[in-house]
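Please decode residue identities from the backbone states below.
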């Protein structure tokens, strides 16, 4: 399969974080081309034809999402979701750090297609330096005529506003992001109505991820058919994967969709750390179901990973070696989701508490087999029954790990400690069982 670098092809170029450096590699030519070659409606159709799917987790077709906006209601808004908080995920930060104007250009192309006059970049509170960088880039673009009033003499105007969050994971959910942007506490809204009908300030709104928007200059410059020819039939283009865990070369890697996971691990990440054996991995971030070494030949596309029982999610690949305790990993992830639950709905607020309490007692070896059996009930009372996906995702990894490593979970019961990290406890655990 051919090697493609789209979003990262200019990384390392001189002064790429400045307008001058970005224009030296053809920056904002795609925006100029979009304004001349396409009507807004034709641009929406072009993105539809490209097969671009959202890179934030759900993988919904981008052009189709845009087409849900009512045709006759204005103003309407565009929000870039840069509230990157998924455990193991850092690709959006990488794009902002290395090529920030690419995001600004993609945002403006989307804003033109949607006939938006105010586009927002909502960035997580911990990304302080990245927020300042985007504010400077947005100002540079505006001063050069790529933003603001009468952009490039087209008669269309758009202001780009960078808004810093306060470090809440829940604001990565699009309706909680909108609530926060309006100045309210970041909590998810009941859907329907969906943001495309009633979003920011009660008006039609589109929320797109950083990586999704960064693809748009390349689609405009090269055409939908060209982009559709990269990747697979249903998963077009490339994706950025944040590889971390027990590997030799952690980092952000751009891969054509459809290549085997093994290629990412062996050729790009340098294999497992210290030559150890792979025990398990997450293909899409902390919330995604665990996969096993037998899944290394699964293609890196959304349909194949879903068929294997997980999801590409936000593109965070976390590899774990054979010394890893899956109970301990599950406990730490449940702690995260309990802390980040907004508390709006009972199944999530109470469920994550009971889930975390059980996992802490299990990891300490102070949970009986009978109590462990209640883990399934706790998760069943959360999955599909919460106001937003946070409650669902708080159960996915834990239940998948419990299913794949049931012996390991049961060995912790009444063991007096973790039998993975303290093998001497294995005998006593077996006697208790």
């Amino acid at each position: 399969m051919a090697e493609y670098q789209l979003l990262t092809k200019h990384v390392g170029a001189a002064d790429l974080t400045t307008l001058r450096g970005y224009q030296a590699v053809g920056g904002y030519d795609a925006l100029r081309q979009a304004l001349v070659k396409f009507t807004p409606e034709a641009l929406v159709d072009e993105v539809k034809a490209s097969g671009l799917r959202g890179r934030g987790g759900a993988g919904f077709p981008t052009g189709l999402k845009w087409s849900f906006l009512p045709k006759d209601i204005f103003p309407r808004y565009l929000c870039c979701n840069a509230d990157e908080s998924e455990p193991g995920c850092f690709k959006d930060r990488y794009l902002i750090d290395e090529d920030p104007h690419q995001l600004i250009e993609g945002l403006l192309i989307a804003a033109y297609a949607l006939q938006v006059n105010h586009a927002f970049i909502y960035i997580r509170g911990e990304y302080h330096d990245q927020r300042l960088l985007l504010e400077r880039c947005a100002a540079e673009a505006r001063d050069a005529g790529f933003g603001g009033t009468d952009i490039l003499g087209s008669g269309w105007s758009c202001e780009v506003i960078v808004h810093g969050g306060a470090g809440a994971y829940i604001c990565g959910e699009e309706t909680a992001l909108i609530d926060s942007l309006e100045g309210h506490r970041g909590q998810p809204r009941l859907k329907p109505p969906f943001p495309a009908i009633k979003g920011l300030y009660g008006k039609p709104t589109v929320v797109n991820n950083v990586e999704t928007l960064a693809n748009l200059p390349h689609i405009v410059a090269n055409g939908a058919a060209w982009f559709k020819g990269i990747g697979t039939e249903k998963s077009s283009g490339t994706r950025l994967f944040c590889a971390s865990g027990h590997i030799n070369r952690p980092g952000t890697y751009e891969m054509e969709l459809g290549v085997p996971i093994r290629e990412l691990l062996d050729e790009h990440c340098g294999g497992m750390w210290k030559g150890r054996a792979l025990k398990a991995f997450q293909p899409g971030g902390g919330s995604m179901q665990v996969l096993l070494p037998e899944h290394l030949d699964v293609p890196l596309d959304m349909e194949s990973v879903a068929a294997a029982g997980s999801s590409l999610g936000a593109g965070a690949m976390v590899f774990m070696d054979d010394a890893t305790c899956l109970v301990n990993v599950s406990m730490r992830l449940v702690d995260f989701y309990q802390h980040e639950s907004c508390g709006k709905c009972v199944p999530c607020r109470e469920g994550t508490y009971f889930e975390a309490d059980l996992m802490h007692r299990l990891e300490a070896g102070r949970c009986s087999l009978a109590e462990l059996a209640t883990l399934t009930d706790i998760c069943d009372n959360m999955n599909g029954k919460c106001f937003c996906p946070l409650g669902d995702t708080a159960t996915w990894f834990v239940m998948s790990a419990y299913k794949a490593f049931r012996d390991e979970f049961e060995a912790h019961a009444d063991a007096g400690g973790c039998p993975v990290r303290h093998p001497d406890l294995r005998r006593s655990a077996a006697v208790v069982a």
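Observation: Residues 54 and 60 are 5 Å apart (CA to CA).
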